[in-house]
Amino acid sequence: MKHFLISFILLTFLFVSCEKDGDFENEEKDTSPVLVQVSVIDALLQGIYDGYYPIGGLKDLGDMGLGTFDALDGEMVVLNDTIYQVLYSGQVVTPPDTVLTPFAAVANWQRDTVFEQRDVTYDLLKSQFDTYFPTTNIFYLVKMEGHFSHVKTRSVARQEKPYPPLVEVTANQAEFEFTDVDGTIIGFYCPAYASGINSVGFHLHFLTNDRKGGGHLLEFNLAEGKLELCYLFNYRLILPEGGDFFGGDFTIDRSDELEEAEG
Ligand SMILES: [Zn+2]
Q1: What total number of domains does the chain contain?
Q2: Buried b / exposed e across 128-150, counting CB within 10 Å, b at 16+?
Q3: How far is the CA of 68 from the centre of ligand 1 (A)?
Q4: Residue 205 CB partners (closer than 8 Å, separation 6+)
Q5: Would you state the pLDDT for residue 30?
Q6: N or C: which end of the chain has fewer CB within 10 A?
Q7: Do the domain assignments include residue 115?
Q8: What are the tens digits of pLDDT across the range 203-260?
Q9: CB-based contact 100:70 (threshold 8 Å)
Q10: Among 93, 255, 258, 66, which Cα is nearest to 170's?
Q11: Is 47 domain-assigned?
């Protein structure tokens, strides 16, 4: 009798756990977007610019985002599954899938909120953050589309080894101004705890609708358009499997350098 009872309890337990597994397998696949990132921002800040991840592969991980190219060869804008390269000259090209990136971040766009906008500047977006963003403590993919009265961007020049730190490169950045232009801003907002891994706050890039201009966003005035947000609760890092990254120094707080380089 004692034996039977133990077997019965065991069987019941097995049955319950199998059922649990079964239910789990039948659950719908999690399709919430993932922020997928190649390397970390503190690698870029210390001059780790060797590309290691093909941009063709990046497109499989997300259809919107930003980054840079091997040897810091310009600014990357990922828009609707196309990867654009804004060169130091200001020219915009679409490089082949085999080109490598040393730093990029992408996600598959899913719109959570949309706001019609008029006369929004970078300062206004920051000061009215709470109006649009439910919290500072998650990641966002940020898109702003429409007619801009003014946009200022920059791009950086391809570097030779030994690579200088990012602040030295951005000291000689090329700047571009656009007036009365239709275009799209795309990029990320990252929370404070992401420091060292990605840019804390906004990091946005821009591309004109005619695909002839863009770059890393410095200033803007969205005369008329919309602000759209995609909330991101999932994060994946793809790190270099060797090279300069292994010898990098990640013990230093580089947040002041980041502000100088990206601001
Ligand atoms: Zn940038």
Answers
A1: 1
A2: eeeebbeeeeebbbbbbbbebee
A3: 8
A4: 66, 75, 76, 77, 86, 153, 185, 186, 187, 214, 215, 216, 217
A5: 82
A6: N
A7: yes
A8: 999 999 999 999 999 999 999 999 999 999 999 999 999 999 999 999 999 999 999 9
A9: yes
A10: 258
A11: yes
- Determine the structural domain holding residue 128 and report its residue range: 34-262
In a domain, 26, yes or no: no
Centre of ligand 1 to C-alpha 206, Å, is: 9
Q: What is the DSSP string of 31-67?
A: ---EEEEES-HHHHHTT-----EEHHHHHHH-SEEEE
- Could you tell me the distance, in angstroms and rounded to a whole number, from the CA of residue 101 to the centre of ligand 1? 13
Question: For residue 227, what are the contacts with CB-CB under 8 A and spacing of at least 6?
Answer: 114, 115, 117, 120, 125, 132, 142, 143, 144
Q: How far away, in angstroms, is 50 Cα from ligand 1 center? A: 17
Q: Whose CA is closest to 199, among 67, 102, 70?
A: 67
Question: Residue 142 domain-assigned?
Answer: yes
pTM of the full structure = 0.89
CATH number of the domain that residue 140 is part of: 3.30.1330.80
